[in-house]
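Final paragraph of the annual report: two paired records, presented back to back.
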Amino acid sequence: MYSMIHQYLTTACLGFLILSFAAASLAEAPATLDYDSTIKQGTAQLQTGSGDLALASGEAAIRAAPGRWEGHALLGRSLLSLKRYEPAADALSKAIELAPQSEQPTLRDLRRQCLLAEAGSVSTVASAPVATAVPGQSSPAESRMSIETARRIVSANDAEWLDASTGLTWARPWYYPPQAARQWNFTDAQSFCSTLTLAGYSDWRLPSAEELQHVFLPSASGWHEARPRFVEGYGLNKALSQGTWAPASFTVNGIKFQGNRLFFWTNTPGDRMGEHVGFYFGEPHSIDDGVKAGESQWGHMLNPFQGSALCVRAPTP
C-alpha cells in the first residue's frame, strides 16, 4: 500500500512540474512577442513625432525585459526627441552596455548628440531626424543618417571628444592603434600625434602646456593613493576606473609600477635646452626630451613615470 501511494505521489509531482514548465514556456513566447511589438510600436510613434507615446512604449518595454537593449534605446531616443538630453544620455548609455557590438556605434552617436545638446554647444540637435531601431535590425539609411548628423556636430564616432569650452578636440587614447608604442620620449610622442589617423582625421598634434592643463587636472589626494584625474567630459576617468583604458604597467630599477603613472608630453619648451614641459598627475614638469621612463624626486620620495601623449586637433572650419 505504501509503495502504491509513493508511486502515485511521484507521478503527480512529475506531472505538476511538466505542466508548470509548459505553462511557463507558453507564457514566455507571448511576452517576447509583446516586447518586440512594443518596440515596433514605439519606433512607429517616434517616426510620426509622438515622442510622449514612444516614451511610454520604451518604459513598458524596459519593465517587460530590463536586460534587453532595445527598450533602453527606444527610451533614449524618445527622451532625445523631447529635448530631455541628460536622461536620454543615461538611457542610451544603458543601451550601449547591453547592446551587441554591431549596434553600439549608432547608439554612441546618439548619446554624443545628447551630451553636446545638454552642454549647450549645439542648439539644433533636437530638430534633426531621430534614428530608430527595430530589434535585431539597423537599416543602412538609419545608420547613415545618424553618422552624418553626428559628423555635423563633432565627429563620426566616439574616438574623440570636443571640449566645448575651448573648441579643441581630444583623442581618446583607448582608440589609439593597438600597435602604438608605449614609453615615449618627446620625439616619439610628437611623431605619434603628427602621424595619427583617428576618426577620419590626420591633423593631430601634441597639445601645449596651457591646453593640456585645461583637461588634465591635479590629483586631489596624495601620490600613493592618486590616479590621474581629467575633466569629466573627456571620459578618461571612467575609462581608467572600468579598465576600458588600461596603460601597460612598467618596471623601473626592478620595481613594477601601475601603467597609469603617465607623464604626458606637450609641445611647450621646458626650463632648459633639450627639455619640454609635460604633466604628471596634473602637475607640470620640465624633463629631458630623450627620457622615456624613469623616476624623479619632484618633491616626493619616488615618482616613477612613463612618457605618453594625449593628441589634440583644432576643429575643421
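The closing record of the year follows.
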Amino acid sequence: MMKRTLNLAILLAATLVAAACTFTQLAYSNIGLAYNNAAPMLAWMVSDYVDMSDDQKEFVRERFSRAFAWHRTRELPEYHRFFEKVLAQARDNITVDEAAIDHGELRRYYHRSVERLLPDMAEFLLQLDSLQAKQMQKRFDKDNRRMVGDATEAEAPERLEKRVDHFIVHLEQFVGEVSDSQREMVRAYLAKVPENVDERLADRRYRQSRILAMVQAKPPREEVVAELRRLFIDTQAWRNPDYQQKLRDRDSALFELIARISASLTPSQREAFQRRIRGFIRDISEITASRGADRG
C-alpha cells in the first residue's frame, strides 16, 4: 500500500525511470484525469488493505486531498522546470551524467512527497485496531506470496522476456515503436540486472513488520513519523549493504541504457519523445491553471 501511495505522488516523474504504477496507462493517455482523480482512487486502494470506518474513510480522503493540493501548488512547478530541462537535453543525446543527475533530482522530489505524507500516514496507522492490523497482515502476506509466485512461475529465460516486454511497453509510450537493436539494448540491460527477489522480499517484510508493530504498540505520533521516515527515506540506515550496492549498480546500468537509447533514437523517435515531454509540460500547466481558476 505505502509503495503504491508514494509512487502516485511522483506520477509525473516516470519519464526517465519508465516506472510502472497503478495509474500508469491512464497517466499516459490523460495525466490531468489521473492526477485530479488520484486522491479518491488512493482512498479506495487503502480500503483494499483494511476495512475502514466511515470516519477513517473521510480522514483518508481529506488527507489525500490536502496532500495533492500541496503537491499541485508546491511540486508541479518544479516538475514543469524539470521537464523543460529534459526537453532541452532531448534535442541531442542524454548523457550518462545527465541521466544520473536527473535521477537524483527525481529522488529528491520523491523524498519531499514522502516527507509531506509521513504525518498523515502516522495518524492513520495509529487509528487502526487489532482487527484491522490482522487484515493488513493478511494482505501483506498475499502480496508477498504473489511476488514470490511471479518470480518462480517460469524459468529464468521466460521471466527475462516478460521483463523485457514490460519495459518495452513503457519505453514505446515515449519514443514509439522500438527497433530490434533497441530491444536488444533493453534485454542486455535487464539480463545484467539481477531480479534480487530475496532482497526485495526481505525489504518488504521488514517494512511490513515494522508497520504492523507500530499499529499494535501505538507509540507516540512523532515516533511513528520518525520510523516511517527511516523505512521509506533513510533506507541506508537499515538496508543490507550488499543490496544497497546492487541497487547502485542497477542505477548505473540504467543510466548507461538511457544514454545508449538516447543516442540510438531516430528523428521520428526523438520527435515522439519531445512530443511526450511537451505533453507533460502542457498537462502540468493546465492542472495548475485550472486550480488557480478555481481559487479565483
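The chain is about 80% helix and 0% strand. This concludes the annual technical report; the extension proposal builds directly on these records.
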